[in-house]
Amino acid sequence: MRLETQEQYNAVVFTPKGKMMGGPDAEKFHEKIKEYLEQDKKNIVVDLGKVNWMNSSGLGILISSLTSVKNAAGNMVIARPTEKINTLLIITQLEKIFTSFETLDDAVNYFKK
Amino acid sequence: MVAEKEIKVSSDPKFLGEVIETIEVFLSGQGIKGSIQDDITISVSEIVTNAMVHGNGLDPSKKVSIRISVNQVKVNVLIRDEGAGFDPGRIPDPSAQENLMKTCGRGIYIVKALMDEVECDSNAQGTGVRLLKYL
Questions:
Q1: Do B41 and A53 touch (CB under 8 A)?
Q2: B64 vs chain A: nearest CA distance in angstroms?
């Protein structure tokens, strides 16, 4: 997995690319989350539009990131989940805990309110 | 006609990416792509991870073997570890409200949803999981 981050308005957009499968991917993701939380940047959008494959370890990365952000009194939403990722969210009922947007603009605008 | 591939790896999750890549190449070579390929590779990743971590206890001297075969109607995968076995009936339901925020424990649950058949045979010599997907 490659990971890019970019600040857009008052949100930070995380853009993982490729396969999201735990191990080094998790460390990379959590380090970046921690870095932004330490800078008091607590509005996180995870753009999943370029994640072409994810397993339960990838879901674990999203859950632990959400927990870290909420513990820091911030919020994290997801954007552009692929059909397969949506299927995984529905199977595991994680759709109940993630706020999800069909477009990146909608997700970024969520934090403009 | 049946095409087969066998892979054997040490119990170190750093090899998981290579395992998945090898299976992707094999399945693509058999014309199996897209959503069906993803269902199979996601499921294999879950079972191989369980085999390495829970079955073999991350002991690098213990191997995980993966045998995949394809014919015109189905894909069969057999994954075996060399661990002490486990009781699959004791895995808690990850979709229960109290487990939703847990970061792990969803692997088998996902595999059962993505594959058409899942069979598990666990004893003191190890655990074997057979996955079947109809094409």
A1: yes
A2: 18
The pTM of the full predicted model, rounded to 2 decimals, is 0.91
* CATH number, position B15: 3.30.565.10
The alpha carbon of residue B67 is apart from the nearest alpha carbon of chain A, in Å, by 20
Q: Tell me the CB-side half-sphere exposure of residue B60, using CA atoms within 13 A.
A: 4
Q: Enter the tokens of residue A36.
A: 């932004």
pLDDT tens figures, B13-69: 889 999 999 999 999 999 999 999 999 999 999 999 999 998 999 999 999 999 999
Report DSSP state, residue B30. Answer: T
CB contact (8 A) between residue A93 and residue B35: no
Q: Find the farthest-apart pair of alpha carbons in chain A and give their distance in angstroms, rounded.
A: 35
Of B13, B38, B107, the CB nearest to A56: B107
Class level of CATH domain A2-110:
alpha beta
Q: Which residues of A touch B28 (CB under 8 A)?
A: none
* Chain A residue with Cα closest to B104: A60
What three-state secondary structure class fits A7? strand
The whole-angstrom distance between B46's CA and the closest CA on chain A is 7
The total number of structural domains in chain B stands at 1
In terms of C-beta density within 10 A (0-12 exposed, 13-18 middle, 19 or more buried), how is residue A110 classed?
Answer: middle
Q: Which structural domain range is residue B34 located in?
A: 3-134
